[in-house]
Amino acid sequence: MVGVLHSSPHTNGDPNAIEKMENQKTLIYPKGFNITWGNDNRYWRLPPQSRAPMKDSAAELLQVSWLEVTCSTDNVEVGKSYKVGFNLSMTAAAFGWKGCNVYIMAKIGKAGMFVHKKVCLDTKEKNFDMPAEGLIITVKPPSSSPGDSHLYFGMYEVWSGRWKGGLKIHHAFVEKIN
Fold first, then answer.
1. Could you tell me the CATH number of the domain that includes residue 88?
2. Which domain, by its residues, includes 170?
3. What is the mean pLDDT of residues 40-67?
4. What is the pTM of this model?
5. How far is 19 from 50, CA to CA, in rounded Å?
6. What is the pLDDT of residue 73?
């Protein structure tokens, strides 16, 4: 059909939804996430597109069988190590998480090799970081794409085929390790 616009069911992160803090920590708020199926309100409830403070918002997973939330930052230095993860909470109606492994994965450069941690989200904690001890990645000079030292990372559960919901993602974090 001519003239029909198709919008993507996925959200693309806004690079302005990143806060670089003085303590060598970077926070990426929900508007900065790339979320598979994020533009479909049957699956996700996202913060409104207003100029409201980003700190008070969360991306709420209503129900999905394919969980993929990613983000990136260039606020890293070659030769330094960083802890990455997500700040989360579960709603009272959370479901599908018992025995469900979620992976936090990170890489340097688009062609980089992933490092990962497997975490079971079978919790009812009000607010927690995942992984609890963080995933550590060291920024090495990229060999395949010179100059691409972006840190790409995400949260994934795409293998079980199980429906899950009731997860709130408050922010992602990148913290330089001294």
1. 2.60.120.260
2. 15-45+56-177
3. 83
4. 0.88
5. 17
6. 93
